[in-house]
Design brief:
Strand content: 15-25%
Number of strands: 6
Oligomer: single chain
Number of domains: 1
Radius of gyration: 16 Å
Shape: globular
């Protein structure tokens, strides 16, 4: 299995050319992320999978959020719910953004229960939160689908990842999010 999936299903990616017949989705492979971060994210995905297998689709987002929090506590995963992230402009706080879950102070999880694909707007919101929090990774988990793997989306703060590699903004391609590879054994 590769570190990220070329997704050829039709998604609403707002003209980004990633639906049927478009170019394969480009992204940063998981192997380029901190292994500890990847390990924690796989544990969270395992918790989400357990919740989805037990409950299935059809409930309100709050039901999945509560069940996921319960499962993460049972697995010893530290998190903060409804965490406030300060938004700065020219080193001044100009507002706050609230993320669903801040996991181990390392990455953000956005929980959904919507019978549709994850939109570009949701990806952009998570990407903005990652930049404000100075974090590399975010996950959007949409519990509404029949298969959880269809609702898992990885969003990256490419600027932070590239800065760690010594690459300046503008030197990278547009591949800052990709469908998250889901391992049934996770």
């Amino acid at each position: 299995m590769s570190d990220y999936r070329n997704d050829n299903r039709s998604h609403s990616n707002e003209g980004r050319g990633r639906g049927r017949g478009g170019p394969p989705r480009r992204g940063i492979p998981l192997s380029e992320l901190d292994p500890t971060l990847t390990s924690i994210s796989h544990k969270v995905i395992g918790c989400a999978r357990d919740v989805h297998m037990a409950l299935g689709g059809g409930y309100d987002e709050s039901v999945y959020m509560t069940a996921l929090q319960q499962e993460m506590r049972a697995q010893g995963i530290n998190f903060k719910s409804n965490h406030s992230i300060p938004v700065k402009y020219k080193d001044q706080v100009v507002g706050h953004s609230i993320c669903d879950l801040l996991i181990e102070d390392r990455f953000i999880v956005d929980v959904m229960a919507a019978y549709r694909d994850v939109s570009g707007s949701e990806r952009s919101t998570l990407r903005a939160q990652l930049k404000s929090a100075d974090l590399e990774l975010g996950l959007i988990i949409n519990f509404a689908g029949r298969l959880l793997k269809d609702g898992l989306v990885r969003v990256l703060n490419v600027d932070k990842i590239n800065a760690a590699k010594g690459i300046t903004p503008g030197d990278h391609h547009d591949g800052d999010e990709a469908m998250y590879d889901f391992d049934e054994k996770a």
